[in-house]
Design goal:
homotetramer, alpha/beta, seven-stranded parallel sheet, 11 helices
């Protein structure tokens, strides 16, 4: 059986990445693509790397006939996403890649995103889309909220440790380095090649990054008490890839074993041998997340490092993994592509 | 039916790329991997991006039992390749990725590669591996010689034009720009990041590049008379990708139509609309080659531009495409992966 | 004696580059900086790499008191430049970095830039700013028109050859590769890091690039008859640097000797030994232009390759070199900085 | 008066950087350059970006006549450096860029560098070359030991804070990102462009990096008690630049004021306004170090970020700054070059 898929907001990087992945999916067919400003264009003109595919023309959302659509990927900006999703026929399954349905506490949403939530009734049914930890809920969900790409990376390093109660919850630092595609295809001076290549810098330092809202929500829920981490993202001169260097207090061997046990049956989480650590280059273009653990020379301190591709495992690959579950397909369908190196 | 595959020289970039592609191939199984200096290691230690795969351990060639091997990919350096292939059981099909069997004239081989050919008897049965132009011969071959990556790019731009007799054969210039992975994983000062990033330079200028031997052989064969082109490769600060800007004398519209007709049924050659031209970014990680044609402001002059990924369509993807034909499989099996962008 | 300098349009890359160079100039003092949209800001906030300098605040042009200004660098967009310069006090010397005064034929200006020239009376006194070939005129000029960066590179490779009559004037091809800073700090999708890194593509193919107007004007003037070249620029994943690979018909040794003789006393043109050729990396951040000559394997064909930094020798360095002449200073003052490598 | 300078080990990146800086120094003349394997070559052939300079030919160290040499920059590998420096005439001043004389405790040297020190008598007179903190000693020294580039960056962020006793000495984490030129021009697989571009990874995780020996020595000396920090370096796809993100416990405003006071008269340390933080791009090619301070959302936690160019302020620029002091010149001579951006 082939599932009919619509992608809303197909002219951004996450939309294009969804199409790349679905192109070799055995049981999905893309039947509609929307892009507001680029409506009327062919996808191959907006993203020439997809020229070889036969794809529907880009249209405005209003022009889509949703009658036979089984699942919608919504790759629109936050705030827009809410407004669009609440108008969709309620029988359609939805995977939202925006931030709109990630935060269960509506006050937190308003605090971090600067305006009230406009679809609070939908928030109630939304499931947080970190597949490895919400698998059953996602399988049964109608609406799944894709996680932040940085939030996913940090959680893969930390959730099992917090759950196991083996690290100091008040002393967690996530120093994260990310490629630039996470910022999307937007026209901003700080995303120009001339402003980014051959260097690095931190941004949103000191607790200003919105993905902290996800860390706060998820880590506190896992711990059963409030947990606040420090989080400093840095921008790399690279398009894809996130590496999170996480500093914790706890025994390195216990930490490694806890993570290895937690992930031993996960198809996409690759646990490295103790003492080894990952590189963004080795997950690029794939849905894999590599996790490594190293003990510090100071006893009782451990460094956990996780790496994934922000557009794949951090966003569109995760979305497809969730869609597979929601549609009753093999969770890994269309997602076993090996990373592209070099 | 599953074909049993061995890859010799698996510790280089083309070996790794073969494994990446075969990882999702429906009817191939890798049963042996060789790597001389890295024998005894796991592939995931040599190339951590392949860590998620179950692969045979790297061994020396002598340790491989070829009894049940159906096809060998030989990704060894030239000269070594000859010596190894002539010792293989004669029933095994071979796709060689080195330069050893590309040149039908043994004197040309000696001239360009600096030593006599050591397996002249095998040269006689080798088929030149440019799939789109040698498809029938490849399907029937036991030994196929993969082309040079630059040689493939230039030929996709030019062969149909030379065959059709619509361009001046004495006035062809190929100005080519290539990523660095074509030079392999070798330890050379000029391949260091610090020597390459943020700049560009020509190399092998004036007729010194060995892929000229392939241009000479193939273009002369197609034309039925000697053809010598000018060819200047340049090194880009990029890992994958070749773009060849080809200057010819001939009518641009006729040239575009001739190429479009030649490639209209080709699954991997994407002909762009007249006046458009390709980018290496839009073929990265894929087996596609994009070809564009633009007329110059000077009447009777045309620029043909072709772009492909040197490791995929220019090398390992081409090799797999040929292997599919040799094994009676669908030519596109394992090769329809969309390019990775951005 | 210290010359008082104003820079109009200081918030772009060429403006910042002028400040970088003037920072160590022995006899220039920057007394005014304009930037329309960023008026009121400190230069160190617009360009943090200049934070260590004491510089005037950015203001609107109308706010500048030009009474004591000796020379103005005008780094404004074309069309705007004309309008501004014609309002400046006529005693002030002006180096214009835009395209507005490069073309002596006003009809050519209108053809290439799409609107009539608004300061035709000034065009009459403007001197084309390719220092090495207009040195005397520049020394005496009030208004000097900086050249296009690509136009400068191509001319360094070709002017002495055209003047000497030793190459075929109807068979010149300039295949040029340029870094992205030449496009300025403008918000365009095709200048984003994610759209540019790790690849290359041609643009303005077939005779569409405006710098062709300069090639046409200058080469025809040197030859004494119309000369039209082919010119294909390519965009590199690099910020600075242009390398022009120029294909000509003529004797390589004669060509090398002609260029070497032409440049033997030039402080900024470095002629490489016969058979060697340059890299953009070896001129980065400097006012030097490296020129090399290689003979092709086809007799009578020669490749001339020139490399320079588009922001320095191709733009702001050239502008300062011209300003030095106009002010009676040593032509090399502030410009002998060695290239930055790696 | 012109000082006669010899550079030993001139064929590496730090040697080339010294020449770049000295090229515009008002009172230094390079009279000898050594390079063991490249003896007999011209510097312009080893580093074509220096082609425009008249420089002595590369020779072996034994061939240098040190009679009239005033100061030697020793840019040799560690261990080699000791052996060479102890043979130099004792009247010659020496700035060593290797690790050989950085550690006052010879046992620490042996522990971190794996072999006994071979010139212990010289270690006694060596001064640690962090100019801003050892200025008087350096002015009087015959032998100055250049610091590690990472060690310098971390110390600029931390020394005044440790001296002032305003941060928790047991809770310091330095998460550092560095360009690749710090590893030199050595032929290692992990320095190839194809292994580095478009990604990032940590290395020497958990306390394995040799620059920790300098942190231990210096911070403990400043604090008057043992101080051990955590330090994780990461490799960036960039040639130049280090940014250190330092996590401390202490009041952010007090920390900012302490650093601002400490550096208010320093010509090369640029303190950013509270809440701002630096980028490697804004110091590239210069001797400046930018330092910023941001308070975390968790009270009592502060992030200090320092950025510098590893080849300039982190190595050759620091060396020249020290040499200026040792020779009685203005400390900033030859070093006021503005950063190169973009």
């Amino acid at each position: 059986m082939t599932h009919k898929i619509a992608i809303l907001g197909a002219s951004g990087y996450t939309g294009a990445e969804l199409i790349r992945l679905i192109a070799t999916h055995p049981s999905m067919e893309i039947t509609a693509l929307s892009a507001d400003r680029k409506a009327g264009m062919q996808m191959g003109d907006v993203f020439p790397h997809l020229r070889h595919l036969s794809l529907p023309k880009l249209v405005k959302i209003d022009e889509i006939d949703f009658t036979h659509v089984d699942l919608v990927f919504c790759a629109l900006p936050h705030a827009t996403s809410q407004a669009v999703i609440k108008k969709l026929p309620s029988k359609i399954k939805v995977v939202d890649l925006s931030a709109d349905f990630r935060l269960r506490d509506l006050a937190e949403y308003e605090k971090w995103y600067g305006k009230p939530h406009s679809a609070p009734e939908l928030q109630g049914e939304a499931v947080y889309g970190l597949t490895e930890f919400y698998r059953d809920d996602i399988s049964a969900a109608r609406l799944v909220a894709g996680t932040g790409c940085n939030a996913a990376t940090g959680q893969f390093a930390l959730r099992p440790l917090i759950a196991a109660g083996i690290i100091d919850l008040d002393e967690i630092i996530i120093d994260l380095k990310t490629g630039v595609s996470g910022a999307g295809r937007s026209l901003k001076e700080n995303l120009l090649h001339a402003e980014l290549s051959e260097g690095a810098h931190a941004y949103a330092v000191g607790g200003a990054h919105r993905h902290l809202a996800e860390f706060d929500q998820e880590f506190s829920a896992v711990a059963g008490r409030p947990v606040k981490v420090q989080f400093t993202p840095h921008l790399l001169p690279a398009n894809r890839g996130i590496v999170a260097t996480v500093y914790v207090k706890g025994d390195p061997k216990v930490i490694h074993k806890t993570l290895a046990d937690a992930y031993k049956n996960e198809p996409f989480i690759v646990m490295l041998p103790f003492g080894e650590h990952p590189s963004t280059r080795h997950v690029r273009g794939s849905n894999f997340c590599h996790v490594g653990v190293v003990g510090d020379r100071i006893a009782g301190r451990t460094i956990v490092i996780a790496a994934l591709d922000n557009l794949t495992k951090g966003s569109s690959g995760q979305a497809l993994q969730n869609a597979n579950l929601m549609l009753g397909e093999d969770e890994t369908a269309g997602l076993m592509l090996a990373p592209v190196f070099p």
